[in-house]
Amino acid sequence: MTTRRAAARSLPGGRRPLVQRVLALNAWAVYAFFYLPIFILMFFSFNAGRFVTIWEGFSLDWYRVMFANEPLMKALRTSVVVAIVSTIVATVLGTAAALALERYRRWLGKRTFDALLYLPVIIPDVTMAVMLLIFFATVDLNRGLNTIILSHVAFNISFVSIVVRARIAQMDATLEEAAADLYASRWQAFRRVTLPLIMPGVLGGALLAFTLSLDDVVITQFVQGPGTSTLPVFVFGLIKRQVTPEINAVSTLMLVASMVLVFGSLLLQRRR
Amino acid sequence: MSTPVGTPRLEAASERANRRRGLLLALPSYVYLIVLFAIPLVFVGVYSFASRSRTGKPELADWNLDAVAKLLDSTVLQIAWRSTWLALLNTVLCLLVAYPFAYYIATRRERVRNMLLLLVMIPFWTNFLVRTYAWRVLLDSDGLVTRLGEGLGLWGSMLFSAPAVFLGLLYGFLPFMVLPLYAAIERVDWSLVEAARDLYASGWKAFRRVTLPLTRPGIIAGSILVFIPSLGAYVTPDILGGAKTTLLGNYIVGQFLAARNWPVGSAVSMAILIVMLIATTVYFRSGGRTF
Hints:
The complex is a heterodimer.
Chain A: H1 2-9, H2 17-43, H3 61-68, H4 70-103, H5 110-122, H6 125-138, H7 145-170, H8 174-181, H9 186-215, H10 218-223, H11 231-241, H12 245-270
Helix pairs in contact in A: 3-12, 4-7, 4-9, 4-11, 5-7, 7-9, 8-9, 9-12
Chain B: H1 8-47, H2 66-69, H3 74-106, H4 110-125, H5 128-138, H6 144-152, H7 162-186, H8 190-198, H9 203-214, H10 216-231, H11 235-240, H12 248-257, H13 262-285
Helix pairs in contact in B: 3-7, 3-10, 4-7, 5-7, 7-10, 8-9, 10-13, 12-13
């Protein structure tokens, strides 16, 4: 209680209800700003007409058109394959990296590795895309599904390791020592103690990696080959040509998928 | 970590074994990031000095400063200037909107707070392309925002103009500002604020001298998370902007996928990267550690 009172007092004129009211108003305005565009977008995916702004009655026609669109469905399949493979690889590599950084002291090149692991998170997408395109072109690797997956793993390792590291930092290190004291081998201690404890972090990181892979446009656009578009890259191309409720239908599908992933990750992270 | 052992020599051996295990665990991702991140980064630097060839793949043999000199070209400077002020404006506006917003969430009761936070997480995780597309539809000539503006007699269709790009950037990156600010405000020790108030500081003064400095790491982290992607933005200006609103991101993509002038594209990418490194160094110097 005192915290809240103090918090209310710490803003200019904090005890005056006016400030609180302005804060609340600002908050609801931001929520409206966040959600109204998304809701309107979803709403018009059920439009019977062919416009995205003029309502002509309810129908599921555009969803039927979407599912019958073969190139689009192929892009969706590519996206799912890329996301699954890159998530698995990045989760294994990222978790090992997180353990090495949090659990082992002063190994050779640790500080450099730490810095290298942060860079893909803060670098702009376009720069990373350029780097990878130049690299694949220079080493003469044919661009296609393999280069997309290699690139997605490259940015996902960092995100997975950040999430897992946060989880390890919260963890009680004495539990592993207790396992060692009870003559558990290193592998047993990892398998029976460490892994179950960091599992929520590992799964949370994996879901983040999966989402990022499904969302990426810029990097994929640079490293894809002929006929290997992912869904976002394909949709990006559609948007630039013309706007139809079919794009709204695809968008709704992608929105629902991200929401399911958010809830999944939050449920996992809440588990202690 | 190390188990207490009898002799110093055994202890040193176990320490060495531990170091080896750390390196072995990190090795796969270490090698991966060196091959698919560090080496490509060096390549971009080297290609900035290459010459353009007809096939699109640059010639490294006769290296020169042509592409780097292009950075001072008036077209490039104009685009860089436009990108920089749009990114700065976006960062400042995100901060002004997100600070009171995050403050409001962080000072609610726990159950309400978790609910409100979840409502921020959803747009944060939602596909960026889809969220930009939502504004493409709203700002169209018969879109809802345009019709609203025309009804009020205030604005017409903003699509393919700088205001549209700006709205798109604000919408796209606002959640990136809210989350670090929330994390910083939630950690504030309110008893310090109370102490300031007890010492007869006005509400404004207590905020300015106590709350604001305490939440500075959040302000800086949020600003970096908004400024860097805004500076390199490509999807937003490509969908919502026009020829007159080309930003650095579009320019780079154009050099690679259309103009086939890789050296110039590389030089501009390197310039953005250097700005980014300076920004993050400032952040780490100023006491922030994690995002």
